[in-house]
Design brief:
This protein is an alpha+beta fold. It is 42% helix and 16% strand. Among the domains are: 97 residues, Immunoglobulin-like, CATH 2.60.40; 85 residues; 162 residues, 3-Layer(aba) Sandwich (Glutaredoxin). The strands form 3 sheets. Strands 9-8-12-11-10-13-14 form a 7-stranded mixed beta sheet, with helices on one face. Strands 3-2-5-6 form a 4-stranded antiparallel beta sheet. The protein has a 3-stranded mixed beta sheet with strand order 4-1-7, with no helix packed on it. It is elongated, with a radius of gyration of 31 Å. It starts with 18 loop residues before the first helix and ends with a helix.
Length: 503
């Protein structure tokens, strides 16, 4: 099985405060909710794309909630959670860790107050206005009852435009009034930067390319990657993911370049740097998009091998990650596939007589190999000896359930395609039970170049990253990897596409 070293990320945080500083710091948050019947409440925070409970009030009485601690809280956006784990409302812990917030269970947003915290008071005004406009929009449909479909559409279009105009105006004025504050920074993360005066393209239509270029160029306007507080907001993670999944061109080299641009804006010792690297690494190591493992390999070369990730991964983990890349690097798209020295079904009988089938230890296999090295050289069938424009390199196992479905499909597809395309199938049996393998080949009429490795010379599973079967690689005439980890249906389509492109 493949070692999934990226699932648990070891993130090193800053050291604890000294006892003297702790005594002077800490937090004291009092929340009073009229009409609330909870007996337990939770204080939680946003941290990139996760949400964590940081404190629990176990004695809520008549809506009075107190969170108190001696350690300083990270600055950012926090939220109150009910005993049913429902989020009540967001608020800021930034200017002070000593807060007093009041509201009413009848309408949380409308009644939110934070005496003594101008930042939270302003934030509550903002969300109250937006909430009211959303409620107003929801009531518009009730006013369309009795109208015709055309009149309803026109009514909703007109009123929606009016509401949108009012919201945009309020938002712009609010942002301008709070420029330079953390409140601005938070709301800026949800604000789209769009080209207002869109030029015309040569066909007379709005220039979509100009719109895209502007949007991409201004996507990160006002975002300070050196400010760890940005990491602890409800909008940052979604914005970052949208940029890398939808805004930029989905090509490995482009993605790597954009990641490096972002990482260079971070302080290497910051939580921002650590969390972003801890997000990017597994995202592209485990990506289901073919070829994106190159991004992972490039990131390892840039940050792991250079020691820049010391605050994210310990030495042992970093070593394992680098070893993982040593396996993946030769298998990247465009690389020449590693050669294989295999034994076919005919020569398998000869190697069996040499004793390879009954050898139990690696030392006995090694001895057998050197004792028979000269004879074996003439028996090997190599991957590089396959002469074809296209080669499907297939790793499979007789006892694999999925293989029992895919291999007959591959047989049928090959029967149809081999007269149309210069195609060979180099089918590697990953186990060593010759009789079982040969029986399956005959019964299922698998007319491929069928080979296996009774000599144990290839280290197949590591060389080709085989942690499950079947695995299918598509190679060109020079044995360069054109596509990998394909289903039979995907392999067929890829051959058709690439062959047509070459013609």
């Amino acid at each position: 099985m493949q070692i999934r070293i990226m699932k648990k990320l070891l993130i090193a945080f800053s050291a604890l405060l000294s006892s003297q500083l702790v005594a002077q710091g800490g937090y004291d948050i009092k929340i009073s909710i009229k009409g609330n019947t909870d007996t337990v409440a939770y204080l939680a925070k946003y941290t990139f794309d996760k949400q964590y409970i940081v404190d629990t009030c176990k004695k809520v009485s008549k809506g009075n909630i107190v969170f108190k601690g001696k350690k300083d809280l990270d600055k950012g956006v926090y939220f109150l959670v009910s005993q049913e784990k429902v989020r009540y409302f967001d608020f800021f812990i930034n200017e002070s860790s000593k807060l007093s917030i009041t509201t009413d269970a009848a309408d949380f947003v409308k009644n939110l107050k934070a005496p003594g915290s101008k930042e939270n008071e302003e934030f509550f005004k903002y969300i109250n206005y937006i909430t009211e406009r959303n409620q107003e929009f929801g009531k518009l449909r009730e006013q369309t009852k009795g109208k015709s479909k055309e009149d309803s559409t026109n009514f909703m279009k007109e009123k929606s435009a009016e509401l949108n105009k009012a919201v945009v105006k309020f938002d712009q004025e609010f942002m301008n009034a709070h420029a330079g504050t953390f409140l601005y920074d938070v709301l800026n993360l949800k604000t789209e930067k769009e080209l207002k005066d869109v030029p015309k393209a040569s066909n007379g239509r709005p220039d979509s390319i100009a719109v895209y270029k502007y949007y991409k160029a201004h996507f990160w306007d006002g975002v300070n990657f050196k400010d760890d507080r940005v990491l602890r907001t409800p909008f940052f993670a979604d914005r970052l993911k949208r940029y890398f999944n939808s805004v930029i061109i989905q090509m490995p080299d482009t993605i790597t370049s954009e990641i490096n641009k972002v990482m260079k804006q971070c302080n290497p010792e910051s939580d921002m740097f650590k969390f972003l690297l801890a997000y990017f690494m597994p995202t592209y190591e485990q990506s289901k998009i073919m070829g994106f493992d190159k991004v992972f390999c490039d990131l390892v070369d840039t940050y792991i091998r250079t020691g820049m990730a010391k605050g994210v991964y310990d030495e042992t983990t970093s070593k394992k990650i680098a070893e993982r890349v040593d396996i993946l690097r030769p298998l990247l798209l465009g690389s020449q596939a590693p050669d294989l020295l295999m034994i076919d079904t005919v020569n398998a009988k000869i190697t069996s007589k040499m004793g390879f089938d009954t050898a139990k230890t690696s030392s006995s296999v090694t001895k057998l190999y050197y004792d028979n090295a000269q004879k074996l050289t003439a028996l090997f069938t190599t991957l590089y000896s396959v002469k074809a424009k296209w080669t499907l390199l297939v790793f499979w196992d007789v006892d694999c359930g999925h293989c029992k479905t895919e291999m007959p499909k591959l047989r049928d597809a090959y029967a149809e395609m081999k007269s149309k395309y210069d195609l060979k199938i180099f089918a590697v049996y990953t186990q060593h039970e010759y009789d079982k393998w040969r029986k399956y080949l005959i019964e299922n009429k698998l007319d491929f170049m069928n080979v296996y490795d009774p000599v144990h010379i290839n280290n197949i599973k590591t060389k080709y990253d085989i942690f499950s079967t079947p695995v299918i690689y598509l190679l060109d005439k020079d044995k360069k990897i054109k596509a990998k980890r394909l289903s039979v249906d995907q392999a067929v389509e890829m051959i058709k596409v690439f062959d047509k492109q070459e013609k």
